[in-house]
Write a structure and sequence with these properties.
The chain is an all-alpha fold and 112 residues long. Helices cover 79% and strands 0% of the residues.
Length: 112
């Protein structure tokens, strides 16, 4: 498991979470956010930029609390592109990849 994607050691040693609570939060995140990349892509495609930005902002905050570093960084990049009215294709690609990598890492952690 790549700690640049999911810094579970940092989350557990910070004192914020015990392992059981952290696992529960990861499980909830997976259920709640598993379709977020697709929702963001669809919102952007249909011109609903504020809705897309809200999805990205929410996942950025949630992922930061869980130590999902790559997703947090990619979400920030995408959120800034949306706010600036810039072309979001590259940032959306980074976000989608980080989203997938994060979910895979969370599943791997939960399988330990």
């Amino acid at each position: 498991m790549n700690e640049e994607v999911l810094d579970w050691k940092g989350a557990l040693t910070s004192g914020t979470y015990q392992r059981a609570a952290y696992s529960a939060q990861l499980h909830d995140f997976i259920l709640r956010e598993r379709d977020t990349a697709e929702r963001v892509q669809q919102a952007l495609k249909s011109g609903q930029t504020e809705e897309a930005r809200a999805y990205v902002h929410a996942i950025r905050e949630a992922s930061a609390k869980l130590g999902a570093k790559a997703l947090t960084a990619a979400a920030l990049e995408l959120e800034m592109a949306i706010k600036a009215g810039a072309d979001t294709a590259r940032a959306l690609g980074h976000f989608s990849t980080a989203h997938t990598d994060t979910l895979v890492s969370m599943h791997a952690f939960l399988s330990q």
